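Two entries, shown back to back:
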Amino acid sequence: MDKIIHQVSAKKVKINEIKPGMVVAKDIVTDEGFVLLARDTMISPSNYSKLKESSIKEVFIKEATINIKPEDLLGRPQAKQPEHIPVTKKKDFQEFAKEYEGKLEITKNRIKAISDGESVNVEELYEITNSIVKKLKTKSDVLTYVSFLKEHDEYTYSHSSNVALLSSMFATWLKFDETEMANLTTAGLLHDLGKLKIPLEILNKKGRLTEAEFDIMKSHTVVGYRILENQNLPENMKLAALMHHERVDGSGYPLALKDEKINKYAKIIAICDIYDAMTANRVYRGRICPFEVIKRFEVSSFGELDTDFLLTFLKNIAYTYFGSWVKLSNGTEAEIVYIHQNDLSRPIVRAGDMLIDIQKTKNITIVDVL
């Protein structure tokens, strides 16, 4: 991989083709001579809106291209294809799942007690999650393993535990110190605390909620905040419960806040919350492949979720699977040998003596990680 050379060039794109996360290659200047966005500025949700509302028709954005010689990749020894042992049969997963199941009842009892007014002990709650994390060979294994855990009837508790695990991993990526890691992890565990006060017939309803029922469901954010409001806790943890359904474009609830008004813990937990909801095994559908999740985030979530946190999340997910074996939609099994920085869900894969650039082969996708 040392011989792969990145080349950055300027590409002209129409205004309707831009999206948050792109980087401006040349100053964007209005007809009046006003610099709307300077060169090297990353397009964020806020300045994205300004561009869309302006009279600008085209802009230059930076495009990273790679100069890859097939012999550079094909000359490397190919990684050994893993034995086809189902994840649920692997010893590492079984040890993780056993610890997870053992702690889930403790988690349930603690969350119930807190919802009834008991004090939050951050150190105690963090250790519950941390004991599960310690069963992982690498922390990033949680991305794969949580999607293979059995479905629980009391989804709120398992989902809260999963979001805590994902938040802990996110804290590692952001290089949080131990105190802030504990706080973010605990905030993830308690983010849906208010759901314990939602009537079960609404919380567990299988069909679509009515508008009135959805209004009651949405109240869990305020209810959770009220439970934590007077506790001796960092404000970030309280606001995470209140704001994790807010969106940077103002389309969220309960306060319809925009970008800088939304607490940073809430922005992070929002991403973990959605990721677990998409990847968890549910009665009505199976788990979703991580690369499909990345694609869905790329297509639909820029402008709604914090750009910087979302890019951190997506890039770390993608790079977690570098060197992994995957199954393609045409049935081929291949090794991931390169991740495109600007198209994370469509890497270059190697199958024997053949390289497949999925970015350029639109009819092929990754359907599973082996």
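entry 2 starts here
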Amino acid sequence: MNLAPKLSIIVTSRNDNHGGEMFKRMSIFMRGLLHQTKKFQLPVELIFVEWNPTAGQPLLNEVLPKPQADDYLTVRYIVVPNRIHARYKMGAEIPLFQMIAKNVGIRRAKSDFILCSNVDLLFSDALMTVLKNNAFDKRSYYRAGRCDVPNKIEVDWTVEQALEFCGKNIIKRLGKDPRYLFIGEWPHLVPRNDFTLRLIDTINSMRLKHLYDEVQYKLRPLDAEACGDFTMMHREGWDDIKGYLELDLYSLHIDTFALMMAITKDYKQVIFGREACTYHIEHDTGWESMDPVQKIKFWEKRPGLAHDFIWEAAKYMLYRKQTFYINDDNWGMPSENFDEITLSPGN
């Protein structure tokens, strides 16, 4: 079944089990997308950028689940070879430059709307319903919250079993509730019902409007938590911000900077409801799972952008009403002729 894709989803990985049980989590992700795109009859192309393939291991297109004749998911594997990775001075410590890889996928996507995501997720049925039914705006960027779940899902579970488990076993939620963008930190004694939350949010909004200037108030509702797991924009929007920063650094906070670039270009933030979330399969090496000592040791080996610098840069641009670019027009390496393996339903 070859239908024009209504959505392009961009992910990246390599066959080295990085992060612990990565092959298992990738397989669950692929089975989930194959099942749900068929269930919701949503034609999607998944662009899977395999960055710096692992020596001695089969390519991912050879070992991950494949679309069948009646599926709605086309999978395009784009292989970025070792010679490209060798250009980066941090290549020995960072075998996968996640955001540069995603740029490769963005530049080669065929759909108008392009979603950047990750391979250790399942999408809730509520999120798939939104993706199926919503008419999206070219001048907005779209965010879905992330729900962390225990790493107890098995590959042989049905997707429906896995989703039921996720819905009942949420460890932690990341991302803003679209109803309460200014909620802030309040004592645990405050009742957390809808009325009090709305009241607190309104009070906080009014208070912050008087305490902060227009720029800082504009940044306050930014939904930057786990934005690497779900950020969707029109292709013109991705081109407007020139994709993710292509830096020889670890990827943390680069996804946040993309949102800030979008804000400087006057794109509107749209956050989906709490049920329209991604389910993230927890793993010990994830950033949220590390303690402070582990994070210090991590940064020693793999330097990256500091959180406070990201916010300082955003304010700098907004105060000056301009966007400064680090990437040039060659972001995503559009002139490189990478090997591509396309697996379509029925082929």
